[in-house]
Design brief:
With 308 residues, the chain is an alpha/beta fold. It is built from 12 helices and 8 strands. It has an 8-stranded mixed sheet with strand order 3-4-2-5-1-6-7-8, with helices on both faces.
């Protein structure tokens, strides 16, 4: 989208329209939903998807927590939380600090919290190896946090765990701690390569560590509808995962890429942009899928390209 082609009136009204969309309340889930966002292929929009869906849900009035489990700390950066000097998820996994003590509020989001990563997390893959129940360290910590929050009357509605681009112990910990797996798939060449290995890891964790885990959500990222390749990838995913796919592709957009450099999500950086609107639609669909069943309520069905 070329902003220079917009009329002054359209440019002035776009943030207002986008902000109004973002403030619409979303359906509270029947119970806490914990998502692991994983794809061992790098550069597929995994962290971007995590922070923007979490921000959208929080803007919809839902209490949301992001756990940055990637040593690069990109989710922490995008949410503008301190992660270089502070204790974070690494210290929790090592048992040197409590998980409650490392929860940080995200500025500008009354309902959004973050547990940051730091550079020490790069050592976790090695330091976890000799530990007892090493695959369940994160699950045990999250269970403690959830219990404390519920007892305080401020329980979370959603928890998102942003994984590193690998299938090591950190990702296994995330899969063991979650109820649902969300896979971002890039609409480009090699998009599906490696997905088989991820699904094999998912199956092993489900069988041996976490019977409740299910592959519930797939999101298409970096979609350019002008190219045949992007449409072919989308069609392939649609045919293989018809129930898991949220068929609202996230467009390849400059605003989405720019936002983290300003320590923001695209939801606040440019709320009227196509990327922000698409992530809002995806978040609303996730919320609709998790709402308590009510025979008198008709679910919202988003059509491709329709605004939230």
């Amino acid at each position: 989208m070329n902003d220079s082609r917009e009329t002054p009136l359209a440019a002035a009204n776009k943030p207002v329209i986008g902000t109004r969309r973002l403030k619409e309340a979303m359906a509270r889930p029947a119970h806490l939903r914990i998502f692991t966002v994983a794809n061992q292929k790098g550069g597929v929009g995994k962290t971007t998807t995590t922070v923007n869906i979490a921000a959208a849900l929080a803007m919809g009035g839902l209490r949301t927590l992001v756990i940055d489990l990637d040593p690069q700390g990109n989710a922490s950066t995008a949410l503008a939380v301190e992660h270089r000097a502070n204790d974070g998820i690494y210290e929790v996994l090592m048992g040197t600090t409590s998980i409650e003590s490392v929860v940080q509020k995200v500025a500008g989001f009354p309902h959004l919290d973050c547990i940051s990563s730091n550079t020490a997390l790069a050592q976790a893959e090695i330091n976890l190896v000799p530990m007892v129940a090493r695959e369940l360290r994160l699950k045990e910590a999250i269970d403690d946090l959830v219990t404390a929050r519920v007892n305080a009357g401020i329980g979370y509605d959603y928890i998102f765990i942003d994984c590193p681009p690998s299938l090591g112990l950190l990702t296994v910990n995330a899969l063991a701690a979650a109820q649902e797996l969300l896979i971002p798939i890039q609409c480009e060449y090699y998009a599906l390569e490696g997905l088989t290995q991820l699904l094999e890891t998912y199956s092993i964790v489900k069988k041996r560590l976490n019977a409740e885990l299910k592959l519930s959500t797939i999101v298409l990222t970096m979609f350019d509808g002008r190219t045949r390749l992007a449409n072919d990838v989308a069609a392939s995913v649609r045919s293989h995962f018809p129930h898991e796919l949220i068929d609202i592709p996230i467009p390849r957009a400059v605003r989405i890429s720019e936002a983290p450099s300003y320590s923001q999500t695209v939801m606040t950086y440019d709320p009227g942009s196509p990327g922000a609107i698409a992530y809002m639609q995806v978040a609303r669909e996730i919320a609709e899928r998790g709402r308590p069943f009510d025979s008198n309520v008709v679910s919202i069905n988003y059509k491709k390209g329709e605004s939230a």
